[in-house]
Amino acid sequence: MTSQTTTSDIHQLPQTLEPRNPGMALDLDWVRRVQANTSAIERRAATLPGRRSVKKDYQAAWLCRAIACIDLTTLAGDDTEGRVRRLCAKAKQPVRADILDALGMTGLTTGAVCVYHDMVPTAVDALQGSGIPVAAVSTGFPAGLSPFHLRVKEIEESVAAGAEEIDIVITRRHVLQGNWQALYDEMKAFREACGEAHVKAILATGELGTLRNVARASLVCMMAGADFIKTSTGKESVNATLPVSLVMIRAIREYFQATGYRVGYKPAGGISKAKDALVYLSLMKDELGNRWLEPDLFRFGASSLLGDIERQLEHHVTGSYSANYRHAMA
User: Fold this and answer.
1) Angle at 302 between CA 301 and CA 306, to 5 degrees
2) Domain extents in the chain
3) Can you state the angle between helices 211-223 and 180-194, rounded to 10 degrees?
4) Can 167 be counted among the known catalytic residues?
5) Helix 274-288 and helix 56-68: axis angle, to 10°?
6) Which of 90, 92, 188, 266 is catalytic?
7) Of residues 71, 90, 92, 167, which has the active-site annotation?
8) Which of 92, 188, 200, 230 is catalytic?
9) What's the DSSP call for residue 237?
10) In the chain, what's the furthest Cα-to-Cα distance?
């Protein structure tokens, strides 16, 4: 492993180097021009797993980069303070020390820890001094159907509790009805409630009906000031997919070309294998370039993904696969 693969303090890359997306006025003409050729998108997506193949040290380096871009997540009804503290310990030390030593890696952590609002104070306390931000799901997650004033208040309380990132859910009916003004106004209000905390807009793409709707919703959320756009809550029947990711990434590219502001991307739900992480990383590199391979612009919403990556890294070091229980999350 060469020194070029070291990810020391990668989670602390200063976001101030990248101007935050301030949003813009809603441009309905631009939104309505957006189309999506579903058959062409699906054909392109089907080729992605075979387009790049990284092996040996290169694969290990890419997998370490994937770890640095994980929002390590627990969003279960039976979450406890003890579970969250163990998850935070895993975020600070995502791979066993002996494996990291063999790889020559230092300072590797996950990109963030993502929890429900009730667990924000616990996560903030457990991560104190690590530089790892706490992300809180908000706005009536996962359905987003609680009263609007309560959704805004939930954001404000999570920020006050110490969350540096807020994952909000949009109202799907605004997209399904083509009410882009309502979606824009909602997203803009959520962004304002976040203050200095960065906001990730969860589109719940599996419930939006068409790829065209996904593309248009992505654009509207970015116009309203989203720092990230995110595929899913992880609770839908269909979560992150490569066709959806291709559509959202190209919307990010179009927005950047038009405004000069970079918006991040977060696929979430269903990404549990190291090989899948490599496909998403290569997609980001191909479509958006190396700048979008940093954790301030790319995240995986995942939990079990980290365990499989750790197994692959151990195999790289030892030549043998270990049992899953050797790489517990919490």
Assistant:
1) 135
2) 3-11+24-327
3) 50
4) yes
5) 80
6) 266
7) 167
8) 230
9) S
10) 57
CATH T-level assignment (fold) for domain 3-11+24-327:
TIM Barrel (3.20.20)
pTM assigned to the model? 0.93
Neighbour count for residue 307 (Cβ, 10 Å): 20
Q: Taking Cα atoms as reference points, which of 269, 149, 156 lies closest to residue 203?
A: 269
Per-residue tens of pLDDT for the chain, all 330 residues: 333 444 334 344 444 468 999 999 999 999 999 999 999 999 999 999 887 778 899 999 999 999 999 999 999 999 999 999 999 999 999 999 999 999 999 999 999 999 999 999 999 999 999 999 999 999 999 999 999 999 999 999 999 999 999 999 999 999 999 999 999 999 999 999 999 999 999 999 999 999 999 999 999 999 999 999 999 999 999 999 999 999 999 999 999 999 999 999 999 999 999 999 999 999 999 999 999 999 999 999 998 999 999 999 999 999 987 777 677 665
- Can 230 be counted among the known catalytic residues? yes
Helical H runs in the chain?
28-33, 38-47, 56-68, 81-92, 97-103, 120-126, 148-160, 172-176, 180-194, 211-223, 242-259, 274-288, 304-318
